[in-house]
Write a structure and sequence with these properties.
Elements: H1 4-14, H2 18-35, H3 50-64, E1 70-71, H4 83-91, E2 95-98, E3 103-106, H5 109-126
Antiparallel strand pairs: 1-3, 2-3
Helix pairs in contact: 1-2, 3-5
Length: 134
C-alpha cells in the first residue's frame, strides 16, 4: 500500500495540479481508514472495534494539541492495545508513531484536515445543529 505522503512526493516532483494531488491523497486516506476497518464517521457506541475508539481519541488529542503532537505517556490509551493492534494502527498510515521519542502525530496534513472536519461535524451534531463547519 502506498502512503499519502509518498503520493504527495511523487505528484509534487512531477508537477501535477495540486487539486488532483489533494483528491488522490484524500482517496488514499479513506483507503487507509477502510483498511483498518475504521468508520469514516466517529464511533457512536461502545460496540465498535477498539481501534476505532483509539483512532478517534488520538485524532481528538492531536487536534487539541498546540504542536500537532501528543506524548505516548503512561496514561495513554495506546498502552491498552495489544502489539497486533499497535501494528495495525501503524500500518494504516493514519498517524506517525515515534515509539522511541514517545509521541504520535498525524501522518499528513490531509489526514489532520480530514479528522478536524469530521470532529467539527460531530460537535455540531452533538449541539443539535446540522450546519457544516467552515
Amino acid at each position: 500500500m502506498i502512503t499519502a505522503s509518498a503520493i504527495l512526493k511523487l505528484k509534487w516532483d512531477s508537477g501535477v495540479n495540486l487539486e488532483e494531488v489533494k483528491n488522490e491523497l484524500f482517496e488514499t486516506v479513506i483507503g487507509d481508514l477502510e483498511s483498518l476497518h475504521i468508520s469514516k464517521t466517529p464511533p457512536k457506541h461502545k460496540t465498535n472495534h477498539i481501534l476505532t475508539d483509539v483512532t478517534w481519541s488520538l485524532a481528538r488529542n492531536i487536534i487539541a494539541a498546540t504542536n500537532n503532537k501528543i506524548s505516548l505517556g503512561v496514561e495513554n490509551i495506546l498502552e491498552n492495545l495489544s502489539q497486533d493492534e499497535k501494528d495495525q494502527l501503524t500500518r494504516a498510515n493514519i498517524f506517525y508513531f515515534d515509539w522511541i521519542g514517545q509521541y504520535v502525530t498525524f501522518q499528513s496534513t490531509l489526514v489532520h484536515s480530514y479528522f478536524k472536519s469530521a470532529i467539527e461535524r460531530e460537535k455540531l451534531m452533538e449541539n443539535g445543529t446540522n450546519q457544516q463547519p467552515k
